[in-house]
Amino acid sequence: MVIQGILIALIAAVVYMESRIGGQHMLDRPIIIGPLVGLVMGDFQTGLIIGGELELVWMGLVGIGTSTPPDVVVGSALATALAIQTGADYQTTLALAIPIALLAQFVAIGVAILNTTFAHYADNQIAKGDWKGISIGNWTGSLMYFLSKFLMVFIGFMVGGDVIKGIVNHIPHVIQAGLAQSGNLLPALGIAMLMQLSLDKKYAAFLFLGFALVAFFNISTIGAAIFGAICAYLYYQFKPREGELF
After folding, report:
1. 76 and 97 in contact (C-beta within 8 Å)?
2. Is position 188 within any domain?
3. Is-contact 76 98, C-beta < 8 A?
């Protein structure tokens, strides 16, 4: 059990750090974390199913600027491990994942505040021209993030889901409600920011076409994507090539 806890904690910490220092390859998503944890727990299929379920819940959740959303990495890793360990159903898995992610969110905020110390240290080393000191400041901050993810998952796995849910239940309701509402707003805010940066009047009609299909005709997301692919194909086929008159 201890070995499993260490391996699961390593999975969570490594995929988190990969997305921060190795480039964003989306390895820190539930659909990736779930199967990896399932492989360690000896039940890859259940891990894949749980990862897919949690991905549907959190696929629109994104950290924007200084906001810190619920910790998807810790929530996914721990919930998958505990669900496989206890044989929990989908509802129970959600009941585990969401409180764990909220509790880990508080820890992540604390680590971010702590890391400002190392950021200021690196700033001071820049003024001194000490490049080694700059590296120490930057990597120490990264180490804090790695250790926080590792320890949260390992300790959570060892103590079990009941203790975690009990801790979350003692968090004041007004704080939990505020975090939940801010989490609901983040996906809309992220889409609005992307639109502000990338919207082109030339292609705006396609955006509104997709909106109309979903809003008025109840087309699913996959259906809207298929319509989008068809529009892209037609646009490519009928777009005048260089040297052509029409």
Report:
1. yes
2. no
3. no
CB 109 within 8 A of CB 36: no
Cβ count within 10 A of residue 68 = 18
Closest to 138 (Cα-Cα) out of 128, 152, 151, 125: 125
Would you say 122 and 138 are in contact if contact means Cβ atoms under 8 Å apart?
Answer: yes
The conformation of residue 239, written as its DSSP 8-state character, comes to: S
pLDDT reported for residue 171: 65
Rounded distance between C-alpha atoms, residue 69 and residue 63, angstroms? 6
Residue-range definition of the domain harbouring residue 230: 199-238
- Rounded to 10 deg, the angle between the 90-128 and 161-169 helix axes is 70
pTM of the predicted protein model:
0.62
Angstrom distance (rounded) from CA 19 to CA 21:
6
DSSP structure class, residue 201? G
Q: Give me the average pLDDT of each 10-residue run along the chain (246 residues).
A: 89 89 82 92 90 79 60 87 77 71 80 84 86 86 90 86 64 68 60 67 82 87 88 84 58
Q: Give the gyration radius of the chain's Cα atoms.
A: 22
Does one domain contain both 41 and 115? yes
Which of 182, 207, 224 terminates a domain? The answer is: 182
> Minimal CA–CA distance to 7: which of 42, 55, 52?
42
25, part of any domain: yes
Distances (CA, A) of 238 to 203, 230, 234, 244: 15, 12, 6, 11
Question: Looking at the 3D structure of the chain, how many domains does it have?
Answer: 2
Residues 160 and 233 in one domain: no
